[in-house]
Design goal:
It is built from three helices and seven strands. The protein is an alpha+beta fold. It comes from Hymenobacter aranciens.
């Protein structure tokens, strides 16, 4: 899944690693930070625990930033949570007029056949919609900031 943002890659990268921006962009699930390094700006090796409501249940997800190549890529991976495993790569490519932001979200459900069935019928679509909504908010935040500051790229 990808999104064009009329902002430079460095700004997109920084905002995507900001815990406050993440919470704001995931309001639809009531996401909030339970534990994170001080300052709210994540970097390589940092661990953050989120709480949000998904499928009517309060869920916790702890991820670690396991790869970082500013301002073009970072990866977060599940340390603890509802999935058997989860890996989320974030890519930021400079293009004319801004940044092409792309998410690659790989995961496996925690339970055998039932989990794979649920994954195929519901979970993949649910997570794609969640990321699409989240990215739309990040885009809005970045483009509003660029517009206000007059720093359009």
């Amino acid at each position: 899944m990808s999104t064009f943002i009329a902002a430079p890659p460095a700004a997109c990268y920084a905002l995507a690693l900001n815990t406050q921006a993440h919470a704001e962009s995931a309001k639809q699930t009531g996401e909030r930070v339970l534990a994170a390094p001080p300052g709210g700006q994540l970097q390589l090796g940092d661990v953050v625990t989120w709480e949000g409501r998904h499928f009517g249940l309060r869920q916790h997800l702890t991820v670690r930033i396991t790869a970082a190549t500013p301002p073009t890529h970072f990866r977060d991976e599940q340390v603890r949570g509802a999935f058997r495993w989860l890996r989320h790569d974030h890519y930021f490519e400079a293009v004319a007029g801004g940044t092409h932001m792309r998410d690659v979200f790989d995961f496996q459900s925690p339970v055998g056949f039932v989990g794979r069935w649920f994954e195929q019928l519901f979970l993949t679509r649910y997570l794609t919609d969640f990321l699409r909504q989240r990215n739309a908010v990040l885009k809005q935040m970045l483009e509003a900031e660029i517009s206000v500051s007059g720093l359009e790229s």
